[in-house]
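Need C-alpha cells for this chain, all 276 residues.
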Amino acid sequence: MITGDGEGFDIAMASAGTYASMQDLYAKWPEFAEWAAAEATSQPSGAFDPNDLEAPSPAPRQVFAVGLNYLDHISEAGLQVPDEPAVFTKFVSSLAGPHCDVILPSGNVDWEVELVVVIGKVTRTVKAQDAWSHVAGLTVGQDISERDLQLVGNPAQFSLGKSFPGFAPTGPVLVTPDEFDNPSDLEIGCYLNGEQMQKARTSQLVFPIDMLIEKLSAVLTLYPGDIIFTGTPAGVGAVQSPPRYINAGDELVSYIEGIGRLTQNFRNSSSKRMIG
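Here are the C-alpha cells for all 276 residues:
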C-alpha cells in the first residue's frame, strides 16, 4: 500500500498476516478496504523500490479483454462499431509486472495501451448502476499482440496471439475508484522509444466500465482479483502506413493519468535476460 510521498506499508506485516498475499487481499476486499482506510493514518513502513513492484493482481482466475472499444480505433481499423462488447481472453501465463523485459516471438508484435479493471468482490448479474461498487481498483495494462498469429485462421486466434509470456504487463499500482475525481475520464497513452503512439481519454470507451461489468456478469461470475482489459484507443502499429511494429531494443512506456507508468524493454529470444 503506497502513500503519496514515495513510502508505503508492508500489508502482510502491518496486518499481522491477515492479508499475507494479494489473493488473500482480494478474497477479503471489503474488509481490507476498511482496514486500509484506518491504517492510512498510521506511520508507513518505509520507502520502497518501484522496480520491485509486481502485477497488482498476479493470479486472477480470469482475464478478460475487450476489442474495438474506442471509436477512433474502430475507425482506423476500418471496422464497424460492435453491437455488443467483443470479448476474448489473455491467458494468465501472459501476466507480468510493470517493469520487465519481454522476449520477442517471431512475427509482428504491436502495442495496445489499456485501462485495466480489477474486480473486488464476487459479481453476478450486477446492473451498471451498481457496477463500480464491485471494482477493487484500476491499473495500467498493455495488451501486447503478435498480429500474425492473432489473425491466423477463421475464426482468428486472438487469445493465442495476445498471450506470449510478458504480453500482459499491468501496474505499477492499483488505485481505488474513490481516489479519482472521475474514474471514468482519465488520460491514457503510450510512447515507443520516446515517440507518442497513442493518446486518448477513457471517457471515449464505447462500452464503459460499468456497462462491461453488467454485460459480463449477466453471462458468468466475476471473482475477486479477476481483471478486465477494457480496450485500446487509436494509434496501434498495424494500421500505420507502412505498418510499424516493435523491434529488439525498443522501449515501450504506457501511462494512465492518476495511476502511473509501465515500462517494457524488448529483446530477441537469444537474450539470456528473461521477464522480470
